[in-house]
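Hey, resending since the last one bounced:
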Amino acid sequence: MGSYELGVWKYLRENGIKYDIVVGTSIGSLNGALMTYDAYDEAVSLWENVNVNKVIRGGVNLPSDFLRNDTFRKENYRKLVDLGKIYFKNKGVDITPFKEWVKTAIDPEKVKNSEITLGIVTTKYAGTKEIDLVAQDLPVEKIIPFLHASSSCWPIFPMEKIDGVLYIDGGWTNNLAIDFALRLGADEVIAVMLPAFPRIPQKFEYTWLPNVKTIIPTRPLGTMMNFDNKVVNNNFKLGYLDACKAYGKLDGVKFTFEKDEKTEIYASKFISILSKKYFESFEGIAKKFTSLHGHYVPKSNKDFYLSTLEYIGDNFSHDYYNIHKLDEFTEIILKGIKSLKANKKVASKYKTLMLTAPVSESDKKAMIYRLYKDYIDAKTYAKLGLIMKNNPVAGAVLSLLEVLDQEGKLS
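The structure tokens again:
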């Protein structure tokens, strides 16, 4: 997951965004150490060459579905058994390779002498008390040990003992330490919120402050035990793209789009059509849409239009790590909708699918195809306003199709 932070760092460097303070919890403390002396190229090389054996002796990459993936468990049965034996013997996996990797990757002298303050968050095991440290205040020989204390992902990794005191991962007490950055004197904060336990940061209220910009992954990053090169590279790309979107350089949520003046035009038409169907405020429609389509609440006409486009696109494209042109993406989804005519599973369901309530994940394509077919049939379309009353996602899809028709894209 740490390569996602590297992608955000890439954006900051490209756009000349300077920082005086870096605060890190867990993997963020390790990346933060490299940021204090601008070791970006070294960080890129490290993440490009990371693999599970450089982190865990006898380790296995664990995909997100490993608990449900029978094939994965059968293929890796012996390795998983051996890993389990080591885990129970040592009260954690063997991270000797990880410690060696960190020792060669991070120069504590450069961290100590940097003018950029490094805040390290860890947790004292007894009483699970948050411990906030400034690297420059530590003896040089204690910087690496406390970075390990911050990133000791117990109970998977073993606890870190320093001067007789046991420490566990900083994420146990503060996995998004905006408050620490403010105490160190930050006027503005760029916070990168990686998936963690708990899912909502312990001090989430700090993300609401007007001087805090929070960058949140728009796609799953995988497990913390997956160092597959493709996953690492995709997370790096995603961190960069999400930073571009957070700063308004690019558009989109799940997907990423080039800026295009047509987006605002389409979005305005879309909201006009949708509001006539529901007779509600923008906020009311947006919240209903969100309750059926993830956690993201559209904040503008453009956001809502693109969220609907992405809802459809999710069924026909999985290219989440590249930048799309609006018209090209629209062509892809329209081609996908039309191709459903030959899909026997969809064809057997779309005619009988009820649209008065939310549809299941497996029925999304059938719903989209039925809306497309019903829109083409003017008589059927005239009746759809009442049917969509309790299904704002279907209403949004239908409204988008009407916009595309007005723009001559359905023919």
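Residues 229-246 form the longest helix (18 residues).

Sorry for the duplicate.
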